[in-house]
Amino acid sequence: MSVLKGEPGAYFDTVLLNAGIGIYTSRKTDSIQAGIELARESILSGSALERLERLVSFSEKIPV
């Protein structure tokens, strides 16, 4: 959770790189660097954490 709260460090950097490459390969940006910046904005704005919380909430409602 520290990564999704924007706490700097090696884990944060690794997640940014991984997400940036994923964003780039899905053709959402023109470069890996732009993908990294998009990922950084998503994390620092709280959007990434909010999406995770919504996914968890949704999955808890699925009957098993």
UniProtKB/TrEMBL annotation:
Residues 2-49 form the Glycosyl transferase family domain. Keywords: Amino-acid biosynthesis, Aromatic amino acid biosynthesis, Glycosyltransferase, Transferase, Tryptophan biosynthesis. InterPro entries: Anthranilate_Pribosyl_Tfrase, Glycosyl_Trfase_fam3, Nuc_phospho_transferase. One of its GO terms (cellular component) is cytosol. One of its GO terms (biological process) is L-tryptophan biosynthetic process. The keyword Chaperone does not apply. It comes from the Bacteria. One of its GO terms (molecular function) is anthranilate phosphoribosyltransferase activity. PANTHER family: ANTHRANILATE PHOSPHORIBOSYLTRANSFERASE. This is Glycosyl transferase family 3 domain-containing protein.
